[in-house]
Amino acid sequence: MSYNTFGRLLRVTTWGESHGPAIGCTVDGVPPGLDLSEGDIQPFLDKRRPGQSRYTTQRRESDTVRILSGVFEGITTGTPVQLMIENIDQRSKDYGDIAETYRPGHADYTYDAKYGLRDYRGGGRSSARETAMRVAAGAIARKILGGGVTVRAAMVRMGPHGIDRDRFDWSVAAQNPLFCPDAVAADVWAGELDAIRKAGSSVGAVIEVEATGVPAGWGAPIYGKLDADLAAALMSINAVKGVEIGAGMAAATLTGEDNADEIVPGPDGAPAFLSNKAGGILGGISSGQPVVARFAVKPTSSILTPRRSIRKDGSATEVMTKGRHDPCVGIRAVPVAEAMMALVLADHMMLHRAQCG
Amino acid sequence: MSYNTFGRLLRVTTWGESHGPAIGCTVDGVPPGLDLSEGDIQPFLDKRRPGQSRYTTQRRESDTVRILSGVFEGITTGTPVQLMIENIDQRSKDYGDIAETYRPGHADYTYDAKYGLRDYRGGGRSSARETAMRVAAGAIARKILGGGVTVRAAMVRMGPHGIDRDRFDWSVAAQNPLFCPDAVAADVWAGELDAIRKAGSSVGAVIEVEATGVPAGWGAPIYGKLDADLAAALMSINAVKGVEIGAGMAAATLTGEDNADEIVPGPDGAPAFLSNKAGGILGGISSGQPVVARFAVKPTSSILTPRRSIRKDGSATEVMTKGRHDPCVGIRAVPVAEAMMALVLADHMMLHRAQCG
Amino acid sequence: MSYNTFGRLLRVTTWGESHGPAIGCTVDGVPPGLDLSEGDIQPFLDKRRPGQSRYTTQRRESDTVRILSGVFEGITTGTPVQLMIENIDQRSKDYGDIAETYRPGHADYTYDAKYGLRDYRGGGRSSARETAMRVAAGAIARKILGGGVTVRAAMVRMGPHGIDRDRFDWSVAAQNPLFCPDAVAADVWAGELDAIRKAGSSVGAVIEVEATGVPAGWGAPIYGKLDADLAAALMSINAVKGVEIGAGMAAATLTGEDNADEIVPGPDGAPAFLSNKAGGILGGISSGQPVVARFAVKPTSSILTPRRSIRKDGSATEVMTKGRHDPCVGIRAVPVAEAMMALVLADHMMLHRAQCG
Amino acid sequence: MSYNTFGRLLRVTTWGESHGPAIGCTVDGVPPGLDLSEGDIQPFLDKRRPGQSRYTTQRRESDTVRILSGVFEGITTGTPVQLMIENIDQRSKDYGDIAETYRPGHADYTYDAKYGLRDYRGGGRSSARETAMRVAAGAIARKILGGGVTVRAAMVRMGPHGIDRDRFDWSVAAQNPLFCPDAVAADVWAGELDAIRKAGSSVGAVIEVEATGVPAGWGAPIYGKLDADLAAALMSINAVKGVEIGAGMAAATLTGEDNADEIVPGPDGAPAFLSNKAGGILGGISSGQPVVARFAVKPTSSILTPRRSIRKDGSATEVMTKGRHDPCVGIRAVPVAEAMMALVLADHMMLHRAQCG
Predict the structure, then answer these.
(1) Which one, out of C38, C68, C250, D13, has a CA that is 20 to 30 A from the CA of D138?
(2) Is residue B54 part of an annotated ligand binding site?
(3) Interface residue C206 vs chain D (CB under 8 A)
(4) Where are the alpha helices (DSSP H) in chain C?
(5) What is the β-pairing status of strands A81-86 and A22-28?
(6) In 3-state terms, what secondary structure has residue B199?
């Protein structure tokens, strides 16, 4: 039972609002004996940080993380690790005009419907600012996984534009502000996104996240399946509307012959799969192949074009967003996706160890 | 922490193997005072039951459910409801030859990798037979939701063939064995599936599941979001590889202008949304619109065409399935999808009541 | 969130009413690869079974347990183990007269107050019959713990009569129907209990349960402390009103000097404690000393002497119990206590392994 | 699955070490719409705060709490409430000498045995300092319970000295630094405690905590029984070795006749119980009577008298505590007990509402 907690054995509880004094999280269940300092976490936060390029919101946050507990003389102690980031650039006045208005595509109406009130400043709790703490916690999850598991993500679609899979290069993704793994597409997208940004419009995206080095055997059927947990983890990211594992939605169009990942004897007696339609998961358990997931991020709802909406009192109005925003919120979802993948895997590593020794 | 338990407050724990003596589940947290008898559950099981048409496996199971606890004089008492179905037509000999072989696309290898052994008879625990108990539990969830909420599902794609949305008719879906809501497509698909079945091949599918009558306010952000819970619920169904809410993966291709579900004042002061790209969920909370999800089911991995694989000892072999199987396992996923939607909603109804009174 | 589930990683979900068709439980999280058959479980059930001596209720139940899932060819598979016992000797007519009356000391009134109705036959869900499933699950927990950990319990007080600690002998406890570890007291108690039984009266008891061989390091502070989990486990047994660890309530009367368990270097460098006021638990974590708990069981509320009470309609009445009952329900709590201790320890063994490797 | 989280629906996750920069907690699941400010919480912290009288440790902490999230314009929003207290008077040097030594009765050895290392400054995570956050969270629980439920605690035994029940007066307990409800005993105890303090010794205590105004029907059998949850809650408080409900351990010495709480028709048709041996709980569900629990706190292990112990390297040593300490740690457990009672009750209020409407 957890509203704001993620994970089974490695449990992350986040708190904080977009424009409150701070945001933070407790990471509980961290194994003892790991080296951990702010320096292990900050680089991942910097990757997600707003204002890094002209393609993301110009809110200026240093996102400087502090470790407040659970680490003694640079080593985790097995007690809860508390991470905190103080909010700096809050500019609440930008958002004052939405106090009484429900922005289409945002959670304004539903929070009010559920709770009877909401902290409307910057979206309050529903803001993607919460994902900073996921990224911070994800850095700890990587520590737990150790060097054998590599988790990385890239943006493989921006609006109508996909990538050329033959040009897929992780090192390219690491070097452009759109995290696009196709150098040619990266340039095209950059130009397009400039135009979209200037027009005050926005565009959706698809992110792909992959983990290599995951051993066979992680995942807890029936209701703790690795893919089910990944689906929840990725769908819980702001603005996500679809999640795929391996072949994903396209699996529906295949025949059994095409979909079968044939197996041949591999080195060391381990199976060698000839394809990975399954995305590295069979029956909810990792197969030793790369774990591959994708998800769609809807276009940012904050746009300059007026949209019809209603006020809290039910009267009609129009909404257009004047404040800072991301023209493609999918960009900043890339490091968040890596964090969620790392968290799910670390959790299942521990879960597997608990039951199967 | 739950391997075989689903839900937060309405908790379903399933047990049983495909060819064990019985399968069952405990439904805990059921509100007291509801009328409940086997007659409320059996019709849903009958809808999912194998051998209903030539399109599903010919295993003959009556799937007769018994209520063993939690109901007194026809009324739920608030104590756990135990449901059990005895397995009848087990034909274990059909599966003896897979004891030492890993079937591509199945969980054979991963179960062995995780647990060191597996009950290989009919797939053991990894068999879709487990979903019978989800359907049974789902019938109780419908009781909890009451008459105001309607949950129904249809198959909207079979392999390469989609439906014509203009012909979408729920009553049509209820009357053909493929649960296809488009009468024209239903006929075409039936012919195609006959050919696929005779060829010993298989095909994937997309299922759409919808709930109407859900009030605004259900869902528990951040990590108990209604869409995140739905994603896990649907991804946990056997053979599912992708889950979408509302516009789904296609949201990535939209602009902010197109994606916005504009709002106008509706009757009784409630908001009237002009579209439903969001699939009835904003910020993880229901908006009062229909909750709409879709998911892709991969083609059955059991096919007549030989596929390369390995044995338990690592040696190479070929696998072809001679036993009974479903040419399109998506068909029987339709009632399962309804059950999972009903279970998630009933759980969130209770969760909302707990926190928000 | 679990009404009817016990444990964190080793999870036991029980179901069933005293006079329903059957009772059962699902044991989830069992490690794979353990030998397990009904023969491993039945002896513990036989120890708890009613009608074993003249000191326990004369209800005749064979309490024959069946394993319905989770075991393949005599080995646990890591999937949920379902255990079931059919109820045989239900004699519901004995209890018909309590349908409209609230028996003092029973849960009749509170179940009605909570749920609005109750299965009054034999106490329904509130009956101690549920503890049979705890005992069955406890047998599996012992398997998980392995031979290094020994769990045993004894009755150390019956009403006003304690034991002489100098005569404490576990082998004596194993051989008398009152599980009394003091041979002299066992005889005295037997005589007293005969008188109490004939008078239709009842008497309370204190049970002591001990686990030896528990390594240092089990327990999960702060809210999964080994002693806190034991306290909940033991307090959840029917009729228990107090739980003690080590020195227990008497710790309040000690000085710091007397209460300190001094430590000296032991063999193999392990600490040797000179006393065990702590009951083997410090800071919620096992110390390697024997884990020792005690709990008080109130006298059976079902007695022949009329007691004032009210009917469901609020009117005054008197209640006296004519049906079968236990003059000292503490006797049958002995095997239940062992089961709960074993379950808590096995759970914490797995929990420790998950976090600390 | 929660190491550092307490509660089912109202979930409190605490973090922080005795001598780290801060301690804090997240209170998740708080209903929206409650007035809440630091002013609602601080008085309870002040009651527990060290250095309030000469009978408690002289560590000087202002224990000033800050609300960092979950409250907007003075009203709870339904999102997680983060509370934080900065540590001020840490004096780590006092504790440097215990880095390599295991103090008898403390968690030093077991933390090292479990985690392989520990933050030894002031006991680190195992310090009773953690209970400050319980008290803070408890203040929120009281808000949730509302004015109809009153929770209060008193110290009813100090070492060998009990109270005279005939002189029990809650207003007396509120006015002396020992929270003793018997004015005569309060004076005697004060003198005794002065002597104990000067001698560098310590003494145990029994605390009684009571809730009035609890309606019948709270509690979730079988494994979420109100008394089982209370037992875990109270046993999880530092230094607690025994927990009693109602008649407690003494129930073992009673006959069924004496133990029965007879019932007569009360005003408004509600039952009127003639005694409260049950402590307000029957079958794990509240009966509408006062809920009454007691627990024993062992004497502070930190004393001036040298006690034998071992060092981390296994060698023999002696330990005596020179730093600040509480001669009777039971005193400060009084507000903690109230907080735990309030938290358990608020949780069960919500749990009951979820299932039973």
Answers:
(1) C250
(2) yes
(3) yes
(4) 38-48, 108-115, 131-145, 170-173, 183-198, 226-235, 256-259, 330-356
(5) antiparallel
(6) coil
A265 interface with C at CB cutoff 8 Å = no
Closest CA to C24 of B82, D266, A304, D227: B82
Tell me the C-alpha distance between C296 and C204, whole Å: 7
For residue D19 the two structure tokens come to: 């001598």
Kindly state the tokens that stand for C209. 């349960």
Strands B205-212 and C307-310 turn out to be unpaired
Cα B86 to chain centroid, rounded = 21
Bond prior to B222 in cis (omega within 30° of 0)? yes
* The token pair that represents A194 in the structure block: 């400039």
- Chain C positions in Cβ-Cβ contact with residue A221 (cut-off 8 Å): 79
The pTM assigned to this predicted structure is 0.97
Give the residues across from B101 on adjacent strands: B311
Note the ipTM here. Answer: 0.97
| Cβ pair A245, A225 in contact under 8 A | no
Distance CA C251, CA D329 (A): 12
Residues in a beta bridge with A84: A24, A66
Nearest-CA neighbor of C218 among C283, C262, C265? Answer: C283
Residues in chain A: 357
CA diameter of chain B: 69
Burial class of A332 by CB neighbour count within 10 A (0 to 12, 13 to 18, 19+): buried
- Residue ranges at the known binding site of D: 48, 54, 125-127, 238-239, 283, 298-302, 324
Mean pLDDT to the nearest integer, A220-240: 98
Any residues with CB less than 8 A from the CB of A65 and at least 6 apart, and which? A38, A41, A42, A45, A83, A84, A85, A136
pLDDT in tens, D224-258: 999 999 999 999 999 999 999 999 999 999 999 99
For domain A5-356, give its CATH number from 3.40.50.1100, 3.30.565.10, 2.80.10.50, 3.60.150.10: 3.60.150.10
First to last CA, chain B: 26
Check whether A91 has a pLDDT greater than 90.
Answer: no
Mean pLDDT of B152-173: 97
Domain ranges of chain C: 5-356
Closest CA to B226 of B290, B143, B294, B282: B282
* Interatomic CA distance for residues A135 and A144, integer angstroms: 14
SS3 B270: coil
The whole-angstrom separation of Cα A272 and Cα A287 is: 10
Beta-strand relationship, A281-282 and A285-286: antiparallel
C-alpha to C-alpha distance for A35 and A18, rounded to whole angstroms? 30
The candidate with the shortest Cα–Cα distance to C338, out of C77, C134, C52, C91, is C134
The answer to whether the beta carbons of residues D343 and D134 sit under 8 Å apart is yes
- CB-based contact, D122 to chain A, within 8 Å: no
Of D1, D29, D355, the CB nearest to B350: D355
Residues B278 and B267: beta-carbon distance below 8 Å: no
Least confident interval from B254-263, C107-116, C262-271, D192-201: C262-271
- For the four alpha carbons of A314, A316, A321 and A325, in that order, the dihedral sign comes to positive
Residue of A nearest to C353 (CA): A354
Which chain B residue's Cα is nearest to A224? B3
State the Cα–Cα distance between residues C290 and A123, nearest whole angstrom.
Answer: 54
Torsion, CA A309, CA A314, CA A317, CA A319, rounded to 10: -40
Range of weakest confidence among B16-30, D299-313, D334-348: D299-313
Pick the closest to residue C293 from D231, D251, D285, D110 (CA basis): D231
Question: What pLDDT, on the 0 to 100 scale, is given for residue D136?
Answer: 98
Do residues B59 and B50 touch, judged by C-beta distance below 8 A?
yes
Kindly state the DSSP code that residue D125 receives in the 8-state scheme: G
Placement of tokens 């203040």 in the chain: D139
Q: Is-contact A209 A293, C-beta < 8 A?
A: yes
